[in-house]
């Protein structure tokens, strides 16, 4: 037998029962305002973005220990720069001292014989005078004195000694000493007419000036 249709009274009772039941609404989130199902990847991305923002907004001033470490690093860098500068200065000074010491040593070796040469020069002068006085003497004597004089000059030359014999050259006050000035129209003024005593230099340094007679203009 077919079931009878509901009466109006039954419809009213069913409507009242439906209204009395609690209604469940779909969940709404900030990420999905329409109440749709939330994607787990969206949740992960939102969490990463929030963490990045917290790192960007981090302020070192909020960490006093970091400020102290930064100040200490800067102080150490300054000390390191000062130490490097001092090391460079010390190395340069040591190099200058070594160079000066080498120059002094070379200079001492170069001119160590200066006093000895001065003591030998009178011997050379005596041999030259003896050779002049033997012009009319024995040939053997002249050759012996000349050979001795040559040997003496050769030895001096090996140690850097040079002879100054400026006859006919312009007068040079740095290497010549004028003992007289004589008018001479045949020579230019301030020319060396005669060498009374030869001069000598040791490695470019004057040991004894040449004693000379200097010409001057006639009249």
Give me the secondary-structure topology.
Layout: H1 8-20, H2 40-56, H3 64-110, H4 114-133, H5 139-158, E1 161-164, E2 176-183, E3 192-197, E4 199-202, E5 205-208, E6 210-216
Parallel strand pairs: 2-6
Antiparallel strand pairs: 1-4, 3-6, 4-5
Helix pairs in contact: 4-5
Describe the structure concisely.
The chain is of the alpha+beta class.
Q: From the alpha-carbon coordinates, what is the Rg to the nearest angstrom?
A: 58 Å
* Number of separate helices: 5
- Based on DSSP secondary structure assignment, what is the total number of beta strands? 6
Structural class: alpha+beta
Ranges where pLDDT stays below 50 over 5 or more residues in a row are 26-35
Tell me roughly what share of residues is in helical segments.
40-55%
Q: What is the string of helix and strand elements?
A: HHHHHEEEEEE
Q: What's the overall average pLDDT, rounded?
A: 80
Shape: rod-shaped
Largest sheet: 3 strands, antiparallel
Strand order across the largest sheet: 1-4-5
How far is the first residue's CA from the last residue's CA?
A: 179 Å
| Strand percent estimate | 15-25%
Describe the protein.
The protein has 219 residues and is an alpha+beta fold. The protein contains five helices and six strands; from the N terminus they run H-H-H-H-H-E-E-E-E-E-E. The strands form two sheets. A three-stranded antiparallel sheet has the order 1-4-5. It has a three-stranded mixed sheet with strand order 2-6-3, with no helix packed on it. Strand 4 (199-202) and strand 5 (205-208) form a beta hairpin. Helix 4 runs antiparallel to helix 5. The longest helix is centred in the middle third of the chain and has 47 residues, at 64-110. The radius of gyration is 58 Å and the shape is rod-shaped. The termini are far apart. The model is unreliable at 26-35 (pLDDT under 50).
């Amino acid at each position: 037998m077919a079931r009878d249709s509901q009466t109006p009274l039954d419809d009213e009772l069913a409507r009242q029962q439906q209204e009395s039941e609690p209604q469940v609404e779909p969940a709404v989130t900030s990420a999905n305002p329409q109440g749709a199902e939330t994607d787990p990847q969206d949740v992960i991305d939102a969490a990463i973005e929030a963490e990045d923002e917290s790192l960007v907004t981090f302020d070192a001033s909020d960490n006093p220990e970091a400020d102290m470490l930064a100040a200490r690093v800067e102080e150490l860098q300054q000390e390191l720069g000062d130490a490097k500068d001092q090391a460079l200065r010390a190395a340069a000074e040591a190099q200058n001292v070594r160079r000066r010491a080498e120059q002094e040593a070379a200079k001492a070796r170069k001119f160590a014989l200066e006093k000895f040469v001065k003591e030998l020069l009178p011997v050379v002068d005596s041999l030259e005078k003896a050779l002049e006085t033997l012009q009319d003497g024995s040939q053997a004597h002249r050759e012996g004195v000349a050979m001795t004089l040559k040997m003496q000059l050769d030895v001096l030359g090996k140690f850097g000694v040079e002879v100054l014999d400026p006859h006919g050259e312009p007068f040079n006050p740095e290497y010549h000493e004028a003992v007289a000035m004589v008018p001479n129209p045949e020579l230019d003024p301030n020319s060396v007419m005669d060498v009374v005593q030869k001069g000598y230099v040791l490695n470019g340094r004057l040991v004894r000036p040449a004693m000379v007679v200097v010409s001057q203009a006639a009249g």
